[in-house]
Amino acid sequence: MINRRGFGKVLGVGAGAAVVSVRGPRSASAEPAVSTGGSGGRTGFPRLKQIRAGLLDVGYAELGPAHGPVVICLHGWPYDIHSYVDVAPLLAGEGYRVIVPYLRGHGTTRFLSDRTFRNAQQSAIALDVIALMDALKIEKAVLAGFDWGSRTADIVAALWPERCKALVSVSGYLVTNREANLKPLPPAAEHAWWYQYYFATERGRLALEDTGLRKDLARLVWDTVSPTWDFDDATFERTAAAFDNPDYAAIVLHNYRWRLSLADGERRYDGLEKRLATRPTIGVPTLTLDPERDPFTAPGDGSSYRDRFTGPYEHRTLTGIGHNLPQEAPADFARAVIDVDHL
Fold first, then answer.
1. CA distance 236 to 138
2. Structure pTM?
3. What are the C-alpha distances in Å from 233 to residues 37, 215, 240, 342?
4. How far apart are CA 64 and CA 14, in angstroms?
5. DSSP for 196-208, written as a single string
6. What pLDDT, in 10s, does the model give residues 295-332?
7. How many DSSP H helices and E strands does the chain contain?
8. What is the spatial distance between Cα 91 and Cα 334, in angstroms, rounded to a whole number?
9. Which among 9, 225, 303, 317 would be 20 to 30 A from 244, CA to CA?
10. Cβ(81)–Cβ(60) under 8 Å?
11. Exposure string for 7-16, b = 16+ CB within 10 A, e = fewer
């Protein structure tokens, strides 16, 4: 077992981890050589891959041995795969095959058809993960995520437990309940969600479609929800490049408007959404993480969602860490993945 200090040492070893090609995916655009820089972490993944999966041509990073146990790391908004740029080599160094996909509307992930509705409701994004696993011939994986990634991983674990070996979920149980979302929260809590309401307006749509304003908005969110994270301009710009996806604005707008019942989903997902509306429990081994300095972290040290997890379970709160937990505390996140795999 590697402790937190030991994980820091592994960063130097993991930086040389090879990306192993697999049948089916094709190599995509190259990324910068792996080295230390920016905020003190790696500058990028060795290279990206692409594979057709479901409705998408998915861009993803892969590190570690081709036949190792699989971990799929899922990012949130306004972030991208680089939230795991330091986590991935730590896990690869422990023998895991690590897959980090761009979610729909981000980075090099593209819709296969111009006619496909740019839908970002929760079940559609979860099915993207199932389709990716099918395309890569992965039967079961540890799923780990934060923000949109936590929600997506939670849904896969709840609806398709046979595909989820174990779960690491930052902020716990994030399955959206649209009926509950119609009820107001205390004003202080509503204040933290300002951008959700901004995106419900025409002004918000125009801002998100403006490439300059969308970056300014994302930078403000980073500063607000990760108040102790000392990231530099290069670290932010590396992620902001993922926002240049032609479907970025449409996907982000639909996600937040759908949550507030201000936009419709698609009927093909109605059955799944009805199941999710019942707040299904999750029975796979789970480790939940709460970042203490995240304004969205609920009080009670995970007590508000503890009853949703019925299998082997552990909870940890990370002191002094904000919303982008994998990038702010990569060793702790990697440790959680390894530990949940042995719960």
1. 32
2. 0.89
3. 11, 12, 10, 38
4. 9
5. HHHTTSHHHHHHH
6. 999 999 999 999 999 999 999 999 999 999 999 999 99
7. 14, 12
8. 6
9. 225
10. yes
11. beebbeebbe
